[in-house]
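Researcher: For the record, we're logging two predictions in this thread. I'll number them. Prediction 1 follows.
Model: Prediction 1, sequence and structure:
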Amino acid sequence: MTFVLRPWQILFLSLAGWVNREQQQIIDYLRTENQVLRELHGRQRLRLNDHQRRRLAAKAQALGRKLLAQIGTLFSPDTLLRWHRELIARKWDYSDRKDQDRKPGRPPTSDDAVQLILQMARDNPTWGYDRLQGALANLGHQVSDQTVGNILKAHGLEPAPKRQPKTTWKTFLQAHWDVLAAIDFTTIEVWTKNGLVTFYLLFVMELATRRVHLAGCTVQPDAPWMEQVARNLTAADDGFLQGKRYLLMDRDGKFSPAFRAILQSAGVEAVLLPPRSPNLNAQLERFNRSLKGECLGQMIFFGEAMLRKAVQEYLAHYHAERNHQGLDNRLIQPGPEVGTATGEAQCRERLGGLLRYYYRASESGPTPKAAA
């Protein structure tokens, strides 16, 4: 009996053979690609995350050990099937759902209570374990004083007498902010008839408001000159240091004992900063940097008069026209035009446009002018 294939059967067999050949070509390519990757990595172990292992394990389980061995994968069939078994074990692992209250021993201290203990200990260096325990009870956390001590020790905090034996500089500044001032020198080179001469500029800053005062300008800050500066700063009528209790200064020899004695007689105590610690006078150091970067460093000076004029112009700009990040981006001495939303926007220039201030001119009042 002769079996005759119909046309559609011939077409189906041809299509099946073509699909089989294409799949075999794909498999051959993937096997070659895996071999190349093996050669590149050598014996170096490939590190996969859990998501990648899960994807490979699911595909490997469907193929089986025999077919996986024929394909020649990057990972052995035993490894792939082991991953699959581990995934099944994790599915039926309910250990994380066990009741924590049934575990033996005392329950652990909550993270909230631990953070409160650490915060209170750092903010209050004189508080002992019992004081901290009582303060914590006021917030609804019942812990023993021994637990408080164990938590502090675990985080490197000593008991109250040893926790913070000295007042930090930050605490000192915050406690005396309104009665604090700072003083410091900066220098600038000026062309004179005698050539290039170094001028010393002495500035004093009121730290609470950031107001700055030019205490003096000289080429020779000797002892008599410094003593006169001290008398000017502490004058009863218009001394810049009136109402101040402390004056921060570095250990420059120009701040002589005689200079400090005049300050002391006026009720202003000189606070000498540690050596090489400009960060402890950061506000005035930052002013000197701004002064040079925005003004003095942009000009060539010929004579003392020109220098004094530039400094006075910059101080006027610094107080009334320059926003300060240390004051929430506000002006030290804002004028009545600040915040005005109506009127034409204008620009006030100082030092030939080196310093600019933008404001809205009042329609009823006069236009602010730069200082002469």
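Researcher: Logged. Prediction 2.
Model: Prediction 2, sequence and structure:
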Amino acid sequence: MRWRSLTVALWLAATACSSKAPPSGRVEVTYWEKWTGFEAEAMQAVVGDFNASQDRIHVTMLSISEVDRKLLVATAGGNPPDVAGLWSWITNVYADRGAIIPLDAYCRKYGITADQYIPIYWQLSSYRGHVFALPSTPGNIGLYWNKRLFREAGLDPNRPPRTIEELDQYAEKLTKRDKSGGITQAGFIHSEPGWWHWSWGHFFGGDVWDGRGAITVTSPENLRAFRWILSYPEKYGKSQLQGFRSGFQDMFSTPQNLFLSGQLAMEMQGNWMYNFISKYSPGMEWGAAPFPYPADRPDLACTTVNECDTLVIPKDARHPDEAFEFINYVQKRGMEKLCMGQGKHTPLRHVSDEFWARHPHPYVRLFYDLAFSPNSRSTGRLAFWNQFHDEMNAAFDAVWTGQMTPERALGAVQERMQERMDREVRTMTRRGLWQAIVEGEMAMRADQKTWRMPERTLRPTLGPAADLTTLFLPVATN
């Protein structure tokens, strides 16, 4: 009874913010989505198109804060929405809890197959050999740089760093101090924006677990990444770096953002960053490129980290068939409009010429190409990913502030997370799921080695990304 009361309260709160009542005679499909602002507006436009495309189904989209938590409550209470928008990093957790239904039969019925998608986004929607979600908008990361600051520092504004070593050299030239030694402009700092501390090892060839049950946080590659992180507070001063950033924390989507305000010359950020540059710093001269790789590891060129938003059907949804009809519409007819509205590339392999020609992000094709890279990485499919994420953030902070060495900080994460992993293995083994989890993970890793980035000559009309094709090639090392 308590669960049902909670779900009724959530439903009343959501419908209070909903649009007008649907036309009579249609099946009402309720869609919970986490987005607000321009992101919600982009999906609302697709919802409107779907509703206008036929006269049998009406989708009502509701913006729900903390949608992941509230969806579990609603599902447990037997009163979930028909469709929900989640994140790829949590799809496996909902699948293991039985909170969402597999979509394999629907995919077969509607002709949705893996070869229609960029591989990484199909992987992020699949788990234990089943499709539990389908992607909506994708995201991955690269290096953004301020061309004006490059020019003022005597650097070629059209030549971003390709290797980690070049990044360090550029950062030194781009860093400015006042008379007291305080930093007034930084070339690069790992703590800005500070969203992917778990991923630094990927850029050095590391991983967070081996796919079979062993946490690998203390691998040589991960330790090398955190020693590189430590080199910045050692070089520039931990108090100076902390002082430089202290007044700008939680300023991402404001004009005071360090990169947007011209006080940070280079930043690791996602394909969505164009939206905030255009809004808060429209006059900025900027570029985007693959994030650098270690000079002695040219095989790691074009490493990126991917996530994607997903559409799922909760268990006990009242109208699952109609819900999937809407999801199918998004995949086949609404995807480009949605992704263009959010300033992102599409998760689909086939992209229309119109999408490239009209897309406002001048480097959107670069991020699209990066998603195909064999060095394309993603969050770990771990049931305790939130805890792991927090542990890696704590390890980063301990190293960045000089409280722990990389060895000690990562060692502590390794010990705690291996204990948590061991419990997870025992639980999933008892449920008869662990073997499927491992087989699915290892199959995806093997497939990833076969990925190839698109080979094409980009037309000049497609914007500055056309000038960056050489950045996909590793620099020769002696």
